[in-house]
Write a structure and sequence with these properties.
The chain is 32% helix and 22% strand. By secondary structure, the chain is of the alpha/beta class. The protein folds into two domains: 130 residues, Luciferase, domain 3 (Roll), CATH 2.30.38.10; 132 residues, Rossmann fold, CATH 3.40.50. The chain starts with a helix and ends in a 14-residue tail after the last strand.
């Protein structure tokens, strides 16, 4: 079985392919929902030779099945945010140290050591519920930073704390809360990376990403808005340093599939639905088919441009049917 050291030491395309195929064969045997999905699709795992040919599990299965292949009971179960009446996803995590290593090493790749930053979390809709993987990650990064903290709706206290703080700062905020602060205070922050995540969560109308970032840049006095791309069903994150272009760590890969033919792969630069390989998901399923739509460039970096139409009811979801 692949170890965490092998996953986080990946440094080339060939190494990624080797590790991904080994993880696939393991999960095809031991992750019961994935094994059943492959059987229903008529796929013989031993016949798969490339990552692009691996069948990707619809992420909606995390709402209806226990997608897990750990030997011991999980140490934690992370849940997705869900609006009233909707079923959240449940991601059973066998080893929290693996998750911590994934988000810590991923952060270091893009932003350096957490200790050089003060990290401020403005995540009200996540803090108000249990089981958020984003809150778990932010809490550990804040502890490693040694300064910063969480703020719920106390925007003035947040801004006072940031004003007094001499260190470089990251303000990680759910999108609607950042927009609230921008509209109410337009604080013109100093020495600060503003990072949005999570969207509007039903609290405000969605805005085109370019318009949202323009408003936030003007209000906060920054040149670019950074973004974090993650979800409860993943143990890794991609980051954008601006312009909505995300890059993933070496153990994570993003591909596109044809919206109408989930087994066809558009060429680089062509729009499609997003598939994700996250090798940190070694104890659940590493090959996930999402309902996000975007473009992946030849360098592997990607943009998110929206959602598949009727995302909650369509797709190649054999086990739900």
């Amino acid at each position: 079985m692949i170890t965490a050291d092998e996953i986080f030491a990946i440094g080339s395309h060939d190494e990624f392919e080797r590790v991904a195929l080994e993880v696939f064969l393991h999960q095809a045997e031991y992750c019961a929902p994935y094994a059943e999905y492959l059987r229903l699709m008529g796929v013989e795992p031993q016949s798969v030779r490339r990552v692009e040919d691996i069948p990707f599990l619809p992420v909606e299965l995390f709402k209806t099945h226990e997608v897990y292949c750990g030997v011991e009971p999980p140490q934690e179960v992370f849940t997705s945010s869900a609006t009233t009446g909707m079923t959240p996803s449940r991601h059973a995590v066998a080893d929290l140290t693996l998750y911590e290593r994934s988000f810590t090493e991923g952060f270091r790749l893009f932003y350096g050591e957490p200790a050089k930053w003060s990290i401020y979390g403005l995540l009200p809709s996540y803090l108000s519920r249990k089981g958020s993987s984003l809150v778990y990650m932010a809490d550990r990064l804040i502890r490693m930073a040694g300064s910063g903290g969480f703020f719920l709706n106390n925007y003035e206290e947040l801004l006072r704390a940031m004003e007094r703080d001499p260190k470089p700062k990251i303000l990680l905020g759910v999108t609607y809360a950042l927009l609230d602060v921008a509209e109410q205070y337009a604080p013109q922050l100093r020495d600060t990376v503003v990072m949005e995540t999570g969207g509007m969560k039903g609290y405000r109308a969605e805005l085109p990403k370019a318009e949202l970032h323009r408003l936030l840049c003007e209000a906060f006095g920054v040149e670019r808005i950074h973004s974090e791309y993650g979800m409860a069903e993943l143990l890794s994150q991609a980051y954008s340093a601006g312009d909505g272009v995300f890059c993933a760590p070496p153990w994570m890969r993003v591909l596109t599939r044809d919206v109408n033919d989930p087994f066809a792969r558009p060429a680089a630069g062509r729009r499609g639905a997003i598939d994700i390989v996250d090798l940190a998901n070694v104890h659940s399923c590493s090959f996930l088919s999402t309902q996000d739509v975007g473009v992946v460039g030849a360098d592997g970096c990607f943009r998110i441009e929206g959602r598949v139409s009727d995302a909650d009811v369509r797709g190649c979801n054999l086990l739900v049917q």
